[in-house]
Amino acid sequence: MEDETTVLEGGHWDPAKVGAHWQQELERAQRYFKSWHDRCVKIEKIYLDQQADQTSAAKRRFPMLWANTAVLQPAVYARVPQPVVERRFKDAEPVARIASEIVERNLAYTGDEADLDSIMRAVRDDFLLCARGTVWLRYEADFEPLDMGVAPSDPAAENGLPGGLGAALETIADERVCIDYVHWSDFLHSPARRWKDVTWVARRVPMSGEEMEKRFGREAMASGAAQAAGARKGESQAERAENEGRTHVWEIWCKSENYTIWIADGSPVALEVSEPPLELTHFWPCPRPAYGTMSTSSLIPVPDYVYYQQQCDEIDLLTRRINKLTDQLRLKVFYPSGDGAISPAIEKAMRPDNDMVMVPIPEWAAFTDKGGSKAVVTLPIDEVQKVIVACMAARKQLIEDVYQITGISDIVRGDTQASETATAQRIKSQWGSIRIRDRQAELARFARDIIRLAGEIICDQFQPETLMLVSGIKLPSMAEKQQVQMQLQQMQMAAGQAAMRAQQMGQPAQAPPAMAPPELPPQLQRMMGQPTIDEVVQLLRNDSIRGFQIDIETDSTIEPDEDAEKQRRMEFVQMVGGFIQQAGAMAQQNPMLVPVMVETLLFAARGFRAGRQLESTLEQVGAQLSQAATAPKPEPQPQPSPAEMLKLKTAEVKAGAEQRKAELGVAQAEIEHRAMLEQARGEAAAQAIDQMRASYQ
Q1: Distance (Å, rounded) from C-alpha 305 to C-alpha 131?
Q2: What is the value of pTM for the model shown?
Q3: How far is 123 from 195, CA to CA, in rounded Å?
Q4: Do the Cβ atoms of 135 and 576 come closer than 8 Å?
Q5: Is 76:436 a contact under the CB 8 Å cutoff?
Q6: How far apart are CA 439 and CA 428, in angstroms?
Q7: What SS3 state is found at 409?
Q8: Gap between the terminal Cα atoms of the chain
Q9: Would the pLDDT of 577 be above 60?
Q10: How far apart are CA 30 and CA 27, in angstroms?
Q11: What phi, psi does 612 have (nearest 5°)?
């Protein structure tokens, strides 16, 4: 990179100097990757059968590259990766749990909206053919104006609004993370040995005149596109037709100088120079490309086809030879000419439209003198057949050599024998997948990096309303919680004041205010038990804390084995069922061990992939069981003695009698009083006898 003083003038970037410098950098990188680029162009033409030599003889080729690629495509990538966002240490932190669920749902929606599956398939094809696949991520937000009753032309209002009138009168209407596939020929980076040593990355974007004017303005578009109009050379006819009316613009991210550049291909003036629009952890808006075979000396990959290209050329040569020899498998007859009536008779007999031929021979003696059938001599096609068989055997051996080089096993090809046992076929399948495990792991790593980068953009850029709207999770804000708490305090104060007034008026209060707080509705109770969106956003915005508490991964990108998935689920169900059966018996004997058993069950469930969906439910049920087991049991109330029971009954009877005296006559009340006393004595005696029997038993 040039000295900063040559690029900056008065604290601002000079577009002319920046553009001239980056045109040199782009040309240097293109020269660095030229041999790989030319090789990939040839390989892509062979794969698509678009070679320049398209004569009838040259068309006879064996499509080995297409066949091998078709076999490897579903083996290295078969389904779209699904985001898996979890707490890194799987603790019971509610804020981290809710944040993980919100981010996971936003990532799932982003993958569906960006059609991540088609992008990954395009990257997979570039990875298998050219040994490099790339994507590019960007953040987009649509804004809509807010009607605040302020005239846009009012300068006083504009000065009074923070950040300018335009910023104050706009709000974000839609936010999204865009994932763009980048063709292998449209991606460049600085020459380096390792990816961590790369100082800049760039992608080429074809843009129309309207897109350039909307993005950079009319002046910048005119200065850049006019000078880049005739810069592209060496394009094919298809490329010229595809790029007609478009200008190739390079988007460059320079990590060493911390700025981004937009420059038209071939133009010495930069269209735009600015600070990076995203503050990402690793700076780049793209993950490390999915690389195939590479050495430790450079980041120039080597396509797999290079290693068996000579064998494919020999296979094509033998295929053309076999096809030519096959054309020679015809019945060719030689006979003497000028023999009068014999030659026309032979020609008539050899016509292909004669199924049953009866040819008269006028000069039969002359025909028999020449030996009859010896007058006709056929071409010996047996020798041609032997050559064809030998060529096919040689081609088959070459194909086997290609299989050995590429590592495509016979079990992947479906070339198995019915006599082989299931164990033998399973062993072949395991050994056959060894050679492609690195490719599977590389594409899985690439998919994980895409998801992580998209997750970082979502956490840093998305507004709280967007996070909750996309995820479908509604969380209260800190202000809403504080408002509910203030209302609860006001209700408690009102209840306390009412109790004090009742005491002053001589009426006993039903319960102290502190012992009987007003009860909230169930909806507000659930809201008060949830973390606030402010706490979740605070966790997501902090890069260091987010990395400590939240981990973003993806599931497998290869086709899962249904039987293996069923087996994992059955193992989880058997583990949970057996544990609950044993833990139930132990909990009845010693309830204090219930919290330990609950934590043990959660520890075991988190080790199962199939148990992740039930983890939250198990935690809730476990917390309820632990609380019920450790809650203090109410002390038993002492039973009154028979004498005390008799006194209580006598007092109740007297109180009832006094009330009855006021209603009935004295005589009648006296009679009833005596009868009730006798009944009370009988009941007290019976209860005393029952208690004595129970104590003896």
Answers
A1: 10
A2: 0.72
A3: 18
A4: no
A5: yes
A6: 19
A7: coil
A8: 100
A9: yes
A10: 5
A11: -65, -35
Q: 331 is written with which tokens?
A: 């019945």
CB 236 within 8 A of CB 245: no
Per DSSP, the residues of 549-586 read HEEEEE--SSPPPHHHHHHHHHHHHHHHHHHHHHHHHH
Bridge partners (DSSP) of residue 135 are 181
Token couple for 661:
């005296």
The number of beta carbons lying within 10 Å of the beta carbon of residue 533 is 22
**Phi, psi of 375, deg, nearest 5:** -70, -15
CA–CA dist 640, 650 (Å, integer) = 14
DSSP E strands: which ranges in 154-197?
170-182, 187-189
Least confident piece of the model among 29-33, 59-63, 296-300: 59-63
274 DSSP β-pair partners = 260
- Structure tokens given for 345: 């008779």
Find out whether 133 and 126 touch, Cβ atoms under 8 Å. Answer: yes
Q: Which two tokens stand for residue 547?
A: 């990395």
Rounded CA separation 47/70 (Å): 11
Residue closest to 253 by CA, chosen among 180, 204, 186, 200:
200
- Mean pLDDT: which of 37-46, 413-422, 621-630 is highest? 37-46
Token couple for 603 = 């520890």
Tokens of 391: 């060529």
Residue 286 pLDDT: 95
Query: CA of 638: how far to CAs of 641, 642, 645, 688, in Å?
Result: 9, 13, 12, 15
Give the whole-angstrom CA distance, residue 229 versus residue 388: 56
Instruction: Provide CB contacts within 8 A for 232, sequence distance 6+.
Output: 243, 248, 265, 266
DSSP state of 325: H
Q: Going by C-beta distance under 8 Å and a sequence separation of 6 or more, which residues neighbour residue 447?
A: 81, 120, 554, 557
Give dist(CA 257, CA 274) in Å, integer: 11
Closest to 393 measured CA to CA, from 322, 289, 339, 308: 322
Output DSSP code: residue 184. Answer: G
Structure tokens at 13: 């970037």
Tens digit of pLDDT for each residue in 316-354?
999 999 988 888 777 766 555 555 555 666 666 666 665
Distance, in Å, from the CA atom of 278 to the CA atom of 45, rounded to the nearest integer, reads 38
Cα distances from 595 to residues 63, 585, 598, in angstroms, run 65, 14, 5
Contacts made by residues 583-592, CB under 8 angstroms, sequence distance 24+ = 587/629, 591/629, 591/630, 592/629, 592/630
Task: State how beta strands 8-9 and 12-13 pair.
Answer: antiparallel
Q: How far apart are CA 611 and CA 617, in angstroms?
A: 10
Closest CA to 18 of 241, 336, 250, 180: 250
Residue 608 scores a pLDDT above 70: no
Q: Got the DSSP string for 610-655?
A: GGSTTHHHHHHHHHHHHHHHHSPPPPPPPPPPHHHHHHHHHHHHHH
Q: Determine if residue 605 is left, alpha or beta; phi over 0 gives left, psi from -120 to 50 gives alpha, anything else beta.
A: alpha
Using alpha carbons, list the distances in angstroms from residue 106 to 86, 206, 210, 236, 323. Answer: 14, 30, 32, 42, 57
Structure confidence by residue, pLDDT tens digits, 110-169: 999 999 999 999 999 999 999 999 999 999 988 765 444 444 444 333 333 333 333 334
432 vs 75, higher pLDDT:
75
Asked if 480 and 474 count as a contact pair (C-beta separation under 8 A), the reply is no
* DSSP states of 648-676: HHHHHHHHHHHHHHHHS-HHHHHHHHHHH
CB-based contacts of 442, cutoff 8 Å, min separation 6? 127, 290, 291, 292
User: What is the dihedral sign for C-alpha 79, 85, 89, 90?
Assistant: negative
